[in-house]
Design goal:
Layout: E1 9-11, E2 18-20, E3 24-29, E4 35-38, E5 46-51, H1 54-63, H2 65-70, H3 76-95
Antiparallel strand pairs: 1-2, 3-4, 3-5
Helix pairs in contact: 1-3
Length: 98
């Protein structure tokens, strides 16, 4: 009898929804204080997840949620980079490339 595989779930820091990890984007703050997007989901550091959705990325910038999650000031330029990355990923998914 085949065992049912466990689906990893994570909570979005923007909406608070618990979603399948594959539908989320991980953002990491490492020990040096650098904040970056982690496409692999395996980088060392404190991770925060947001849903791969354009509206959620815009809301993350508006509410400055990563500042609270990482207890530090995240630059506006990072939020702009995050919005562009999410937009790119959403378009790739719509085309069926991912």
């Amino acid at each position: 009898m085949a065992t049912k595989r466990k689906i990893p779930l994570r909570k979005s820091v923007v909406s608070g929804e618990v979603i399948d990890k594959r539908d989320l984007l991980r953002i990491v703050r490492n020990k040096e204080g650098e904040v970056f997007i982690d496409p692999t989901g395996k980088q060392n550091g404190r991770g925060a997840y947001i849903k791969l959705d354009n509206e959620e990325a815009q809301l993350a910038k508006k509410k400055q949620v990563l500042n609270r999650s990482f207890s530090m000031e995240v630059p506006e330029s990072f939020y702009d980079e995050l919005i562009a990355y999410v937009d790119h990923k959403v378009k790739r998914r719509e085309l069926g490339l991912e």
